[in-house]
């Protein structure tokens, strides 16, 4: 049987920077951003639209981006990332596969992740709504940053069943759950999310991420502390972590 060709992929950007969210905040990663998303969250501040070119950092951490024609092939990516890893040994914790929603590119990832994982561990950033796609890839993933999308913030109905199925799979590796919260996030949503995590895997970290608008946290400290106390009553492993990269002015 002939070997199937390794698929190419349209990408948005590839760069080296500091992880600004969640459990690995402050760690340096290589980010590979995929286009497209299956949700339309009202607070989203990420450009994930398809483009004819991918913006690739000229050298890691330089902030200088060069346009490369899409689609890119795996050899281009591995050559680039191997060079960055060789030039800066020990600097990068992992490769962040992000978007948009990267699991929409399941076929590409199934071919790419084994090769990328030979360079650095794989860290998946995902909206946590595509359990079937995750299940096919979980053996190639080391970390999962999973959102539970709350209707009060996204404007999109929360798919609690998909989130539960997703977390059951993600819990096989190092994983945490992120909740983007705002001043008007109701207690009931927080209780439902905390209960879901507690039932599936009670030791998993829950991160409350205050929504950021125009570069400022759009929720009072008083309300954040109320939310932390509520969630902690169900799952004591909870932290409040804002989007630190917004304050640092990094990519």
Strand content: 15-25%
Task: Name the CATH homologous superfamily of the domain at 13-178.
Answer: Aldolase class I
Give the low-pLDDT segments.
Answer: none
| Gap from first CA to last CA | 44 Å
Roughly what percent helix? 25-40%
CATH fold category name of the domain at 13-178: TIM Barrel
In spatial order, strands of the major sheet run 4-3-1-2-5-6-7-8-9-12
Radius of gyration in whole Å, from Cα? 18 Å
Largest sheet: 10 strands, mixed
CATH class of the domain at 13-178: Alpha Beta
Shape: globular
From the 3D coordinates, which CATH architecture of the domain at 13-178 would you assign?
Alpha-Beta Barrel
H and E string: EEEEHEHEHEHHEHEEEHEH
Given helix and strand content, the structural type is alpha/beta
Number of helices: 8
Mean pLDDT: 93
Record field, number of beta strands: 12
């Amino acid at each position: 049987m002939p070997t199937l060709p390794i698929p190419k992929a349209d990408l948005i950007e590839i760069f080296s920077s500091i992880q600004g969210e969640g459990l690995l905040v402050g760690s340096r990663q290589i980010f590979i951003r995929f286009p497209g998303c299956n949700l339309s969250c009202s607070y989203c501040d990420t450009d994930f639209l398809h483009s004819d070119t991918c913006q690739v950092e000229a050298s890691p951490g330089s902030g200088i981006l060069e346009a490369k024609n899409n689609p890119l092939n795996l050899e281009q990516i591995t050559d680039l990332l191997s060079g960055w890893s060789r030039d800066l040994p020990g600097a990068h914790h992992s490769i962040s596969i992000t978007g948009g929603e990267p699991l929409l590119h399941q076929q590409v990832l199934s071919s790419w992740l084994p090769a990328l994982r030979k360079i650095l561990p794989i860290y998946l950033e995902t909206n946590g709504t595509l359990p079937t796609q995750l299940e096919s890839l979980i053996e190639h993933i080391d970390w999962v940053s999973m959102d539970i999308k709350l209707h009060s913030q996204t404007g999109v109905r929360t798919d609690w069943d998909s989130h539960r199925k997703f977390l059951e799979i993600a819990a096989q590796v190092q994983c945490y759950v992120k909740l983007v919260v705002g001043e008007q996030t109701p207690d009931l949503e927080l209780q439902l999310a905390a209960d879901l995590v507690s039932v599936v895997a009670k030791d998993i970290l829950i991160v409350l991420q205050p929504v950021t608008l125009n570069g400022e946290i759009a929720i009072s400290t008083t309300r954040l502390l109320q939310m932390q106390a509520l969630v902690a009553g169900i799952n004591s492993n909870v932290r409040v972590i804002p989007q630190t990269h917004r304050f640092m002015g990094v990519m």
